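Reading a protein record of the kind used here takes only a little practice. Each token is a code from a learned vocabulary of local backbone shapes. With that in mind, consider the following protein and its fold in token form:
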Amino acid sequence: MNLQKWWFFVSIATAALGGGCAVEIRDYSSSGSGGQAGAGGQGGQGGQGGQPGCVNPGAEGCPCAADGTCNPGLSCKEGTCIDAFPHCGNDSIDEGETCDDGNKVDEDGCSSTCQIEAVCLVNHIGGDPSVVSSIRVDQDGTMTLADLRVLDGSHTIGLWPFRQRAAARCGRRVYFTLQTSDSIEAVEVTPTGKLLPVGATKSVPDVAGLLCDEKNNVLFVMSHTDTVDVRAYSIGPSGELVDVDHKTLIFPVGSLDTVAFTMHPQQPAFYVFGGSTSGINPAENKVVGAFVRYAADGKMTVDQPSVTADTGEGFFHATFLSTDGKFMGFTGYSGGGFANYELAEAGNIPTGVSPTYSGAGFSNGYDAIALDGDLFYHSHSDANVSACRFTPGEKATCLTATPATGGLNRLYLAYGGKMLIAASGYGGAIDTFALGDDKTAPNKLATFPLDKTESFHASALVPCFHAP
């Protein structure tokens, strides 16, 4: 053997015997035994034990089933079933989760895949005393009373309950107004739907409505007499309201009878409209709108007036935006008018643009919810709920008319748009409707009568769970 080959083999032997080379030592159960150590060297590492065989394809860590599927909560990746929600159960809401209660147990309101299993509709019912109730609405449409709280103050609803749409959800808290005492109150909704009082009383007269930016913890309060006052409050850790900003909007439309407002779906901004209900002639029912932008701390910048809109026949009293922010609709209370505008830019109201009208299909409508850009739902005081659609340059058309328990409903979409909830302003009941695959044919599931038969004041939808 020549000198070069001899040195090569000596180098290999030295390394194997541990000459200056650190070797990580691990403890492997059922592993092979390591090689014996030479003088001054560490023994070779044993082989790792084999993985136990999988007797249940589709289980976590096992091969996927023959059809490529895995057990619930798992997903098939490269032929092996892995946890589809690896962070579920860590008590923090992560991407793909709608809740996380710190465990992976079903039937406790937050499922084993960290998805909400129920919602609660919180209703403010007027009277003396005033009452707040929490109704749990399950995915099959059934409803259960979760809690009922009698308030210290009273609330006179009056003849026109739709003029005070004063309830706003801010996280797990719901803020509402007591009209008689000119105060804003709040309750916190526990995970099981129980109602806890929040020390958030604020004296604000003539409240016409509330809007909340949950991301920034800012509550906007609209009140009106001959003008519209918009107040912004930051929400403290315990729910207390701290004054941030105050703007006064002047609407030159004569007697200011109706105020409507809607949050922009894509921008930190909202619209406020003021109108007169002096008659059923469309020419007498013009409204003027303001576009209110705000910063994260609630400081407001107002573009006003930004439009004088023709809302169609009847008394103006409601407005809404499509989910893409490109369409704006107005409804009239008496006479059945509905007018829709196509916005030139998302976040701006066109001026001098004639709306597209629709007629009697919108008779006496109260509220509307836009879905998927051009599809929305509309309620009527004649106790019908309709799925409607509007397209650029065409009249909005109602595709269906499903009877509801009462009229002047507040409408809510739940469970990924598969359910419509209608809370009746006239009739004292809540209806649930299943929506078909095309979401245009509401099918009534159940009705829940409220404790009081008179019109209730306002409501808000909050995630809630089954009672333990």
User: Anything to note?
Assistant: The two ends are 81 Å apart (CA to CA). Confidence is low (pLDDT under 50) at residues 1-38, 46-51, 159-163. The chain has one helix and 31 strands.
